[in-house]
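Quick one, tokens below. Sequence please?
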């Protein structure tokens, strides 16, 4: 089924919401293929932590947008890691009723000993990660583009929120061959809220 809005006879839009809601459940469909219409404004994170790029976008902003559909607050990958590490919190208190996820997230937050609200809701280390898959054909343009996009995303994250981002991005790109990734990472602005 096409992932797009349509209007029925009464003028109501339906397909986009229906397809998204079906995919955001633990039941079928397990695969959703979309064009660039699915890269902005839609959340696919409740039961998905893998994204396949059948073709790579032309800029780092679009790559961030695409991957941001599954890399979100309390995403599937985060919840799988939380459940693996803190399912005992439910049985330890004799949990009967209420929200088991709240109990597990509270236990993860207490165990994290972190002053950022990003942990454990956005960042929680574990075996499950948001996965980026790119089917690359040997000798294709996509190989070079993926390498460029990975570097560009790191530089874009430095330029995010800066005035005249294009100029700053261009300048940082010129330094990328002479400056290590660790040095560039140290320059990133930490947007984490202070507790």
């Amino acid at each position: 089924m096409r992932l797009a809005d349509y209007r029925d006879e009464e003028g109501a839009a339906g397909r986009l919401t229906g397809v998204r809601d079906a995919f955001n459940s633990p039941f079928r469909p397990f695969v959703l293929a979309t064009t660039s219409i699915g890269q902005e404004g839609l959340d696919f994170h409740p039961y998905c932590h893998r994204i396949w790029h059948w073709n790579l976008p032309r800029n780092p902003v679009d790559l961030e947008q695409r991957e941001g559909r599954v890399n979100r607050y309390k995403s599937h990958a985060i919840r799988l890691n939380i459940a693996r590490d803190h399912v005992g919190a439910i049985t330890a208190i004799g949990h009967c009723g209420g929200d088991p996820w709240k109990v597990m997230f509270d236990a993860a937050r207490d165990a994290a000993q972190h002053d950022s609200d990003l942990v454990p809701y956005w960042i929680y280390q574990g075996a499950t990660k948001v996965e980026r898959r790119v089917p690359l054909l040997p000798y294709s343009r996509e190989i070079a583009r993926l390498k460029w996009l990975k570097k560009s995303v790191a530089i874009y994250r430095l330029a995010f929120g800066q005035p005249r981002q294009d100029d700053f991005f261009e300048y940082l790109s010129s330094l990328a061959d002479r400056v290590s990734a660790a040095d560039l990472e140290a320059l990133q602005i930490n947007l984490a809220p202070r507790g």
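Residues 1-71+130-135 form one domain. The mean pLDDT is 80.
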